[in-house]
Amino acid sequence: MVPNVRQAREALGVRLRELRKAAGLNGKQLAQAVGWVATKVSKIELGRQTPSEDDIRAWAATCHAAGEVPSLIAQLNSLELAYAAWQRQLRSGTRDQQKKIQDIEAKTDLIRAFEPATVPGLFQTREYARHILGQAIAVHQVPDDLEDGIQARMDRQQILYRPGHRFHVILTETALRNLMCPPEVLMGQIERLIASATLPNVALGVIPWTSRLPKTPVHGFWLYGERLVTVETFSAELSLIQPEEISLYGKIFDLMHKTAVYGKGARTIMTGVLDDLADRFFPEPPATPGDDEK
Predict the structure, then answer these.
(1) Which CATH superfamily is domain 5-82 in?
(2) Half-sphere exposure of 206 (CA within 13 A, CB side)
């Protein structure tokens, strides 16, 4: 389960309490040393108040733990970025959210993505994106800028053709079969994926639904180099920047990579899904007796 903001604040407070105790100080002594009211120390340690970067530096200096400052500040920044409710993220519509993602992608050499349920936005067709973004607008009841959001998502895809960027994407076969849209739209989307997999800077892996998964795919995630992981839940988008978190998601990605098939194997799965969709939704009409004699 992804920790919420309260739990993340409490975790930071625990680390600061440990530094204080290791220095042999009680809360009153620490507060006096840095010029705070005594209650501020207890509020920070119990997760009821978020410290500032200056607070952390003063705390660490007083506890003779200056070496802990970079890690503590990274944890603070992770707390501040960790949870952004979708309604707040999308309050000005879907277009601005797409622009934000585009800025992150432009600064990243290697983007790794794992998606267990949908096709990633960078590889979506216009019609597939229409249904995905339309769902977000309807569920979260945010401003309806669907056409602008779709265009912004299409604009993001230009990075696939710019030098200096590499993409490693892993999908489950389930993501190829989920009917988030009409079957003909999904078939067009799979054809786009097959074409995208031929790009020299794109590695596209598919995990067959007959494979035993190394980790339960509770959600998708995106790794931007070694500096940021984004995770989407039903209610929010999380931005994770702690080195331990990035390392964990990198490990999970590697596990999924070992389970996925690439190249010809991936194309075989994708064309197989296309055939299944065609047989199910667009079957050939039965032959009329005598047609073979005409």
Answers:
(1) lambda repressor-like DNA-binding domains (1.10.260.40)
(2) 26
